[in-house]
Amino acid sequence: MAAPIVRRWFLVARKVPLPPLFLAGERGLLSAAYVDSHKWEAREKEHCHLADLASLMDKTYERKLPFSSLTISRFVDNISSREEVDHAEYYLYKFRHSPNCWYLRDWTIHTWIRQCLKYGAQDKALYTLVNKVQYGIFPDNFTFNLLMDYFIKKENYKDALTVVFEIMMQEAFEVPSTQLLSLHVLYHCLAKKTDCSWEEERNFGASLLLPGLKQKNSVGLSSQLYGYALLGKVEVQRGLRAVYHNMPLLWQPGYLDRALQVMEMVASSPDDGKLCAEALAMLDKTLNTLTAPAPAASEEQPQEGEDSRGSEDLVEQLDVEETEQSKLPRYLERFKDLHSKLEALGRVESESLLALTTQLIKEQLPTYEAEDIAAYEQKLQQWHLERVHLIRREEEQRERAKQEYEARRAAKASA
Amino acid sequence: VRAWADVRRESSLMQLLSRLPLFGLGRLVTRKSWLWQHDEPCYWRLTSVRPDYTAQNLEHGKAWGVLTFKGRTESEVREIGQVMYHDWRLVPKHEEAAFTAFTPAPPEDAPRCVPYPPLLRAMILAERQKRGDACTEEPMLNLEQTRVHPWDYPAKQEVKKKAKATPV
């Protein structure tokens, strides 16, 4: 009687140390230690009255002088309610359009995003991020991770996707934790979406390609393949300029060719890299869609394409002997050969990309998180030192200005 | 006519840089006209940017950088000219290594020498005779000494501005 109860208690007791990933209700990918804002809250900040700072900034602006990055960072530090988030946005816009716009500090950007998330203004944070030209918000990796995790927790994958596209535009896929998180968001959205406009396909392609180039495992290789396939599809349907304009991509034609080169590399390399069946199926579907229905494609083209295709064809294909369109049948043959070769070698992974990514995250994210947290703490200290230096410099300048003013007044009084 | 297609297709340098953190310091930028004209890599590596803060999208301004033209890197920082032309492209970070890889052609062993044109040759021989120089060697022009830049080599920006002033 007692033994089964004890056994059940043992089982329950063993289940108790849950991994910190799985909290009840909201489930983010990053651990609680990462998202924890105590260290940030505990930093030293100057307590200033927001109304004073605002009036100071307005007066300096009227006198046509720029205000310093220290003023704006003090303002953002002392936000304490949702309306003040709006005020801060206005002053960030003003700072960006002042001569000091280059000097917007990292810690100000980090604090701005944290404050937005704290006061529930995540749509404002996203808006300033997307309009980065006007607001100058270029967060670092840690801040990007926090923002993405917040959206993943709220199951708001659409906004998380926008964040990933912004990271891609800024080419900020340096840190492995950002790469893993963004791949997770991308595969989640791809699994749900069936049809996308060509701009979305292009953004997906680039955002899959850039982290895929950095990750040296089967997820990375499959992401590269998937990315190249999507970009090749946009290239053939819309022209090369549509692919690389305003994107961090190269202007050399032949994205489908590069996809096939990835397959060749995997087939001939001695490492254990595998390619996902999903990605291969995507490339297959792309090649078939592009080769088969020629009349449907050519009907659309004369309607839209007079301006866009006419001058493009003239201008861009100067050196190209054959167009991508004509190379498609050869690509299809090469793909079939390589596909059968990969299957013969056993290099095709049958699990879905999302499952693979989730597994990779579970294995590797804790290590990367620990590194990130250590780097963040160091950065906090560095920012503190810089802030102290700036405050000291501002005080010295004020002293000097006062002394000069006194000297001038004494000279005028004596004259 | 050619400029309109470019204005529609490409972007000016500051339009590209306004979208980057720290206005793209340390990044490589190329010009589409260089990409079409030369095979060797030609690019600017940005060292300093001063955007015009009165512009709507911060899409005007000045920039400075180190030029690498046809594989040869200069040693000084210069102002980047023709910044407002709609001709610029940003090199993506993952492509930088491939883009800048350049193996210079092996230099020829003997410097190329070419005989002078006839009038100049006659003048040189006459001068030699006047000096009493009894050398009978044919006067040869060394082609390697004077390096002629191609027509689209970026000129120095500072020189242009200073030339205008005349004393009152």
Automatic annotation (TrEMBL), chain A:
Its main location: cytoplasm. It is found in: Cytoplasm; Mitochondrion. The keyword Repressor does not apply. Residues 293-322, 396-415 are annotated as: Disordered. Keywords: Coiled coil, Cytoplasm, Mitochondrion, Repeat, Ribonucleoprotein, Ribosomal protein, RNA-binding, rRNA-binding, Transit peptide, Translation regulation, tRNA-binding. Residues 396-409 have a biased composition (Basic and acidic residues). One of its GO terms (cellular component) is mitochondrial small ribosomal subunit. It holds the Pfam family MRP-S27. Residues 313-322 have a biased composition (Acidic residues). GO terms for biological process: cell population proliferation; mitochondrial translation; regulation of translation. One of its GO terms (molecular function) is rRNA binding. PPR repeats lie at residues 140-175. Belongs to the mitochondrion-specific ribosomal protein mS27 family. This is Small ribosomal subunit protein mS27. It comes from Neovison vison. The lineage of its organism: Eukaryota, Metazoa, Chordata, Craniata, Vertebrata.
TrEMBL record, chain B:
GO terms for molecular function: structural constituent of ribosome. Pfam families: MRP-S34. Signal peptide: none annotated. The keyword Isomerase does not apply. Keywords: Ribonucleoprotein, Ribosomal protein. InterPro entries: Ribosomal_mS34 (IPR032053). One of its GO terms (cellular component) is mitochondrion. This is 28S ribosomal protein S34, mitochondrial. It comes from Neovison vison.
